[in-house]
Every structure is written in structure tokens, then in C-alpha cells.
User: Fold this.
Amino acid sequence: MTAQILDVTDDHADYMCDESRRVGHAEKITFPKSIADVREALQISIENGWPVTVQGGRTGITGGCVPDGGLILNLSRMNAMGGIDSDRMTIQPGALLADIRETIKGSGLFFPSDLTETTASIGGMVANNASGARSFKYGPVRNWIHALEVVLTNGETVRVERGVHKANDLDFKLGRLKGRLPDISHLRRCDSVKSAAGYFVKPDMDLVDLFIGAEGTLGVVTEVTINLLAEPVQLNGLTAFFASEAEAIEFVRFLRDAGWGTRPATGVGPGAVGQLPSAGVPIAIEFFDAQSLELLRRMKEENEAFADLPALNPEFHTAIYFEFDCDVPDVVIDKAGEAIDCWFAEGEHEIETLKNFRHAIPESVNMLIGERKKTIPELTKLGTDMSVPDGQLENAMRMYHEGLAEAGLEYVIFGHIGNNHVHVNIMPRSMEEYERGKALYLEWAKQVVEWGGSVSAEHGIGKIKRDFLKLMYGDDGIEEMKRLKECFDPMNLLNRGNLFIL
Ligand SMILES: Cc1cc2nc3c(=O)[nH]c(=O)nc-3n(C[C@H](O)[C@H](O)[C@H](O)COP(=O)(O)OP(=O)(O)OC[C@H]3O[C@@H](n4cnc5c(N)ncnc54)[C@H](O)[C@@H]3O)c2cc1C
Assistant:
């Protein structure tokens, strides 16, 4: 036996949670170093009837890698990276985004996925179909995955390559496994928005896409081949400050639609895969509401750790950060001239400073919640991850602000407004406020689904948003998804409890 399976002890406490702060439990843990170890650990689990929870970097925020008994399959030691082969690279699932970037550096190529959290593993990114700020132009990680190697619970290892392994209408064959994909496309009303909620299924699809965003419920990803792009020769980042949110959103609409030709992929999947994004469109369009800027002003004043943040003029109400990987078009410079002020950063180094400003918002939120937890340990922040169709952006923003003001809750709104995808972070001051925020979140999710939006644009469903997935697909859709899961994993051992309860 090569896979060393350990009894869980107090030393393994860190492996019981992810960044959602949900805490689970497990009896066994293993750190495989090879695909043979993974296969063996799965075999032993099947023989013993142990549920298996797969872990990558444990940066997920929906509890997807939090165990609910059984064995933890932690892939952090399977982190080797092969060399660059033309414009592709094959890597093990535990390799971290930061290390992938470091390895590629200097090659003239880059990997377009740019999560804020760079200690995420490529396996976890694939499982969640993760995105980042630059997904406005480059789409989610799905668009940059060429092939996967996956260990199935029947003991087989399959390789699925884009353009090679495809479904025939809805029928599929993977090694010995044959089946029919659920016909859920008619239940999925969110095809025009950014989404990472539930299985991606459509007739004649590339089978690699079935595993991307499946949250580890269909197989363990043991190898990933990524596509790389030629590195942009220049990078320009700008932050424009406006006197009102309405003006800022009008600027976003201008940035999105100002005659760039083809609109960038919304990142809903295979339609966008492999297409090079059109030249000249912004890479990223990010939003910071008035409360976010106010929080930064307060943290700069009150907390040493934020002393280096740039001073924010009291007139700045809302900010839009945007990036171009080419000269900023003159029309954009002219339009940005209508803002109160516009900060300009050139090249990766200067842009990093602007990014620190952006990262300071979630950091401040976490710090505030951390303080409150000292007196109310069960308190957490409530963070949304929903996207809406283009036409509903203003309505969604109104819904958030009005609901939060009425409920008297403390909050900030920031994020990927280019994709109509902002994160509302509610910072409750009591458990009563927490419950009020939760009720509000559920109301919003119902409305977003009604508009044809997605309840999760990038973080996935995991174990904490299962009710929201049901809102999106209804009982019928969930039943169809369960049938697919049963076909791949009849004993329901793998990542049990992610997406739905079987
Ligand atoms: C501060 C912060 C910022 C973040 N910013 C972003 C962002 O910009 N964009 C974004 O999309 N997300 C973001 N996230 C969320 C998180 O980083 C992503 O969800 C990421 O994809 C998780 O990767 P991981 O390796 O940490 O996965 P884990 O948390 O370990 O696992 C996530 C899921 O993937 C499954 N999984 C992991 N590896 C495998 C595998 N090899 N095979 C099968 N299943 C597997 C797990 O079982 C689990 O269901 C952020 C999180 C934090 C804390």
C-alpha cells in the first residue's frame, strides 16, 4: 500500500474548515503524492463505505471542501508542474495559482485566470469554475482548461480533452462508464450571465466541461492542462471617482458598450472557450460603493495596518477601477475626464498598488467581523455572489441598497460590475442582525433567479448555498442532477453534500 491513511487528531484541526469558517469533522486523512495514491485511497474508502472529501488550497468560501465524516483526500502535496509545451502547461491539481504564475513568469506567456486569492489550487479552481476581476475579458477558468485527468469512483482514470471527447447529443461514454446527461438546459434560465452554479450540461458538449464547476462530485481531478496566452506588452489600470453611483454605473455602461466590436465572453462556458478575446476591450471593470470608500477612510484613520492607503477625498462617492492591456482609447480618457478624479497606474508594479487598495476592502471586512466574533463567536459576515442580466444591473443595485438601508444593516458592495456581478458583504453586529441579513439575502436570491440571474457567479454552491441552487433549478432540475451524480458515484461517497443532499 502506498497511500498513507492517518487517523485524524487535534493536529489536523485546520483541515476541518475552509474560508467559509464552517467547521466539519472526519475520522481519516491522507495526503496523496501520486495518482496511484489517489486511486488506492478511493478504493479503500469504497471498501469501508467512507465518504471522501477532496481538498485543494481550502480557500473556498462555500464549505465545499469541509468534511462531513469519513476521509479527507488532501491534494496539496500533488503540486508538480510540467514544463511549458508551446502554449500549454500540464500541472498536478494541488499546484497553487501563485506558483503557476511564478513558473510561467519570463516565458512571454500568462495564465488569464486571476483570482484575488492566489493560494487557491488549480484543482479547486477547476472544481468551482473560478473567475476573477479580469474575467470581464477572459471569462472564467473553464475558458483556459484544455484537458483533465480524472479518477472516477469505479476505479478508472479517464482523460478528457477539449475537442476530442464529446457527448453525442446527451449520450456520453467515459472509459467503461456510459450514461445520458440530464436535459436541464431548459431549466437553466441564466445562460447569458456569469454563473458557477450547478452542473454544466448541454447536447454535444465537450466532456471536460462536465467536471469543471462540478465541485468535485463526479470525480477527483488529478491532472490539469491549461492554455496560456501571449503576455500583453502593456498594462494600464485606472480608478475613476464619481460624485454618485448613478454616474459611476453610466460610466460602466459606456466602458462595456463603447464600440469594442464583439462583447467579451460572459464566461458561461463552452461557447466562449478557445476564442481569443477581442482586442481593445477592457480586461476588468470593478466597482466600489460609497460604503466601501467610507470603510477605507475609517480603516486608514483607525488602524495602523491600513496607514499606507491613499487618502480619499471626501467628495469621492463611488469608484470604478478598470484595466486595459493596450493603450487606453482616447474616448475612454475623455469620458473618464468627467469623473471627479482619476488615478492612473502603468505596468504590473504600479497596478499592484491599486490592487492593494481593492484588497483592503475584504480585508477590512474580515478584520471587523474578527473583532465582533470575540464577543459573539457564532457571528460571520454574509457575502453574496450573484450575477444578473445586463438590463437588471440598476434594479439589482437599487434592490441591495434599499433593502439594506431599510433593515438598518452595515454593509459594503464591491466587485465585478463589468459582469453585473457584485459582492454585497453584510457585517452584522448581532445575531439578530445576522438573521435579518440572511432573510434579505434569500429574498434577493429569489428576485435574481426571477430576473434570469445566477445565485453563484464564481464561488460555487458547496454546502452552504444548496437552497439557492434549488431556487434556480427547481425540484425537477435538482432531481436530474442527482441522477447524473448517481451514475458517476452510486455509493454517494465523493464530496457528499456539495450542491444537494442525495
Ligand atoms: C480572500 C479570498 C478571495 C477570493 N477571491 C476569489 C476570486 O477572485 N474569484 C473566485 O472565483 N474565487 C475567489 N475566492 C474563493 C476561492 O479562492 C475559490 O473558490 C477557489 O477556486 C478555491 O480553490 P481551493 O484550491 O482553495 O479549493 P478548496 O477550497 O480546497 O475546494 C473547493 C472545492 O473544490 C473541490 N476540489 C478541490 N480540489 C479538487 C480536485 N482536485 N478534484 C475535485 N474536486 C476538487 C473541493 O472538494 C471543494 O468542493 C476567494 C477566496 C478568498 C478567501
